[in-house]
Design a protein that fits this description.
The complex is a heterodimer of chains A (113) and B (114).
Chain A lengths: L2 E3 L4 E5 L4 E3 L2 E3 L6 E7 L6 E7 L7 E2 L2 E6 L4 E6 L8 E8 L6 E2 L3 E6 L1
Parallel strand pairs in A: 2-12
Antiparallel strand pairs in A: 1-4, 3-9, 5-6, 5-10, 7-8, 8-9, 10-11, 10-12
Chain B lengths: L4 E3 L2 E4 L5 E6 L6 E8 L3 E9 L2 E4 L8 E7 L2 E6 L8 E8 L8 E2 L3 E5 L1
Parallel strand pairs in B: 2-11
Antiparallel strand pairs in B: 1-3, 3-8, 4-5, 4-9, 5-6, 7-8, 9-10, 9-11
Classes of the chains: A mainly beta (113), B mainly beta (114).
Chain lengths: 113, 114
């Protein structure tokens, strides 16, 4: 069974600064996908970024980027130039096939003005 | 497309009553998932369907829970009888399996069993 661990229950950052959220996972699969989802107070689950395990290049989406270390089974999310609208719960998720997601426990991120 | 549509958004029911949650996936998607979110257990996959067929229901907590997908555009999650510990937010999500797409989530149903 796959497990996903987010060791930071809460994080905070000042507006315009950079923050990194940590995620580790455990799997015996060789091909899989990793995701970061954002859940604002509206509770809508929003995909932030995805990474295919077979790709060595780290994914980037505007201010969001990942540091994917396959051997270490680590998948951290970096948010640059943090904005107030980034305040949310962030979930790391693993999928051996698209859609069947196993989630971490989540990290509450608060961006302060 | 309007996205994944769940109803109702909120449900309050008394212990012992039957509860039915509904989901309309995105048109053309062939996989559908039901998740439950609680403070204690986080996000848990309850069951998922592929082409309307249940593939993995190992996450369904007990016999009181059942899920159906009679056609490609509709699914239900039923709890009978409901208990206070079933109080949670229930999410439905859909995806196009085998393609480079993520799972799209509905807005969720907040269930409160009193």
């Amino acid at each position: 069974a796959q497990t996903v661990t987010q060791s930071q229950p809460e994080m905070s950052v000042q507006e315009a600064e950079t923050v990194t959220l940590s995620c580790t996972y455990d799997t015996s699969e060789n091909n899989y996908y990793l995701f970061w989802y954002k859940q604002p107070p509206s509770r809508q689950m929003i995909l932030v970024i995805r990474q295919e395990a077979y790709k060595q290049q780290n994914a980037t989406e505007n201010r969001f980027s990942v540091n994917f270390q396959k051997a270490a089974k680590s998948f951290s999310l970096k948010i640059s130039d943090s904005q107030l609208g980034d305040t949310a719960m962030y979930f790391c998720a693993f999928s051996p096939s698209y859609g069947k997601l196993t989630f971490g426990q989540g990290t509450i991120l608060t961006v302060h003005p | 497309d309007a996205g994944v549509i769940q109803s109702p958004r909120h449900e309050v029911t008394e212990m012992g009553q039957e509860v039915t949650l509904r989901c309309k996936p995105i048109s053309g998607h062939n996989s559908l998932f039901w998740y439950r979110q609680t403070m204690m257990r986080g996000l848990e996959l309850l069951i998922y369907f592929n082409n309307n067929v249940p593939i993995d229901d190992s996450g369904m907590p007990e016999d009181r829970f059942s899920a159906k997908m009679p056609n490609a555009s509709f699914s239900t999650l039923k709890i009978q009888p409901s208990e206070p510990r079933d109080s949670a937010v229930y999410f439905c999500a859909s995806s196009l399996a085998g393609r480079d797409t993520e799972a799209f989530f509905g807005q969720g149903t907040r269930l409160t069993v009193v």
